[in-house]
UniProtKB/TrEMBL annotation:
Biological-process GO terms, alphabetical: tRNA methylation
Residue stretches making up the Ribosomal RNA large subunit methyltransferase K/L-like methyltransferase domain: 173-325
Lineage: Bacteria, Candidatus Magasanikiibacteriota
Name of the protein described by the UniProt record: Ribosomal RNA large subunit methyltransferase K/L-like methyltransferase domain-containing protein
UniProt KW keywords: Cytoplasm, Methyltransferase, Transferase, tRNA processing
GO cellular component labels: cytoplasm
Transferase recorded as keyword: yes
SUPFAM superfamilies: S-adenosyl-L-methionine-dependent methyltransferases
Molecular function, one GO term: tRNA (guanine) methyltransferase activity
Entry-linked Pfam families: UPF0020
Compartments, as annotated in UniProt: Cytoplasm
Classification via PANTHER family: THUMP DOMAIN-CONTAINING, TRNA (GUANINE(6)-N2)-METHYLTRANSFERASE THUMP3
Length: 377
């Protein structure tokens, strides 16, 4: 059985939930085990298309494939590199315990076997990508007496271009990190031939990720005209980068999310993925009561929004939704709306065996994001 190690991003639980949803959808037979906090092993019945998988995932940073057990690491590395086609100079890198010593020994042995060889210290993923070591299958890792080769690395530059290079931008209403938007779409498990809606689309982060994942029908709405204009610009910008998106049915509506049933036909939407309005940004001077009142107002907004979702969504449609968690002055205040969401006709789909929702939080931030997945009954 082919074995893989997945290096997970900064929220490993979310990355695992995403990975499992994507692999299950691909109907692959696999088993999984957590090796370390940010390391997940997948044993699959057939080989994985690691580069394709990497293109798809938001929460995985590196995929390694096992070459096999290596009780004698120096011999295993030597054997593996000797099996590679002997064209020109062989460049390789090595990570793991005693990597430097092992690399020097490998270099010496390969040279005596007549190979021209160069060792590249794997300072960071950029060094590995720059030296093309993924394509040549020569970025190696020793992990618990097993030798691995890197099969894919997260395309860092493409992600940061999506994050910082886009034309429409609204720092005031906050931007969802593109990788999190991608991860949330993947968590929905939605098929890409149905209509995907973001009813609080802001500058269009979710819409752009839906486009890059190949969704054929994408709908964005927001009550702010500026958000609609930003989404339009960003969408066009990204579609051009993809070489055109002519066949995509893309629609934008300026609308209050609670009123969307006036714009969209009943049972026409296949999935909702959204980071809604999370309240006024906190500055640190607001009294405690302000946070409590804001959480109440948001509960009311989200309740009405889910009642609208119940009208416009198809049966069984998924909703991936962010609920804010205020961490203000040593107190944690959540938005109390789960009962109302269930009453509106939705069930919770737990995102891990231990917890219904998963947190995306940065230390020191006053608002953490709880990621939830629901399904229309
Ligand atoms: C947190 S931002 C969404 C950010 C967006 N995901 C992005 O990355 O650009 C929330 C958005 O909700 C919009 N909004 C606030 N209240 C709304 C409502 N009742 N109906 C529709 N949109 C609303 C705001 O205009 C804002 O663009």
């Amino acid at each position: 059985m082919p074995q893989y190690l997945f290096y997970l991003g900064r929220e490993p639980e979310l990355s695992i939930a995403e990975l499992e949803t994507v692999l299950k959808k691909s109907r692959l037979q696999f088993s999984a085990a957590r090796e370390e906090k940010n390391l997940y092993r997948i044993s699959s019945s057939s080989p994985l298309e690691a580069p394709e998988l990497m293109e798809r995932l938001g929460g995985t940073v590196k995929i390694l494939e096992s070459i096999g057990p290596a009780d004698n690491p120096a011999a295993a590395i030597h054997d593996y590199l000797c099996r590679l086609p002997a064209a020109g100079k062989l460049s390789f890198s090595l990570s793991g315990p005693n990597a430097e010593r092992l690399a020097i020994e490998t270099k010496k042995n390969l040279k005596s076997a007549g190979r021209s060889v160069r060792y590249i210290e794997p300072k960071n993923t950029a060094t590995i990508l720059h030296n093309n070591l993924v394509a040549t299958g020569t970025d190696l890792t020793m992990h618990r007496n097993e030798l691995f080769v890197t099969r894919a690395i997260q395309p860092i530059e493409a992600w940061s271009e999506r994050d910082y290079g886009r034309p429409g931008y609204d720092p005031k209403s906050g931007m969802l990190p593109p990788k999190l938007a991608r991860l949330m779409i993947n968590l929905s498990g939605a098929e890409n031939d149905g209509a995907l809606l973001d009813p609080f689309c802001g500058s269009g982060t979710v819409l752009i990720e839906a486009l890059s994942l190949g969704f054929a029908r994408i709908v964005g709405s927001d009550h702010s005209p500026k958000a609609i204009a930003d989404s339009e610009r960003n969408y066009k910008w990204f579609a051009e980068r993809l070489g055109g998106a002519k066949k995509i049915d893309f629609k934008l509506y300026q609308s209050d999310a609670r009123e969307l049933f006036k714009r969209l036909p009943a049972h026409s939407v296949a999935a909702v993925v959204t980071e809604p309005y999370l309240g006024k940004p906190l500055r640190g001077r607001e009294p405690r009561d302000f946070v409590i009142a804001q959480a109440r107002e948001l509960a009311d907004l989200y309740t009405h929004v889910f009642r609208t979702f119940a009208k416009i969504l198809k049966p069984d449609a998924p909703v991936v939704f962010v609920l804010p968690e205020f961490r203000y002055r040593d107190e944690v205040t959540s938005v109390n709306c789960l009962g109302a969401i269930k009453k509106a006709g939705f069930s919770v789909c737990p995102l891990s065996p231990d917890s219904d929702s998963l947190l995306y939080a940065r230390p020191g931030q006053w608002v953490a994001r709880q990621i939830w997945k629901f399904q229309k009954n």
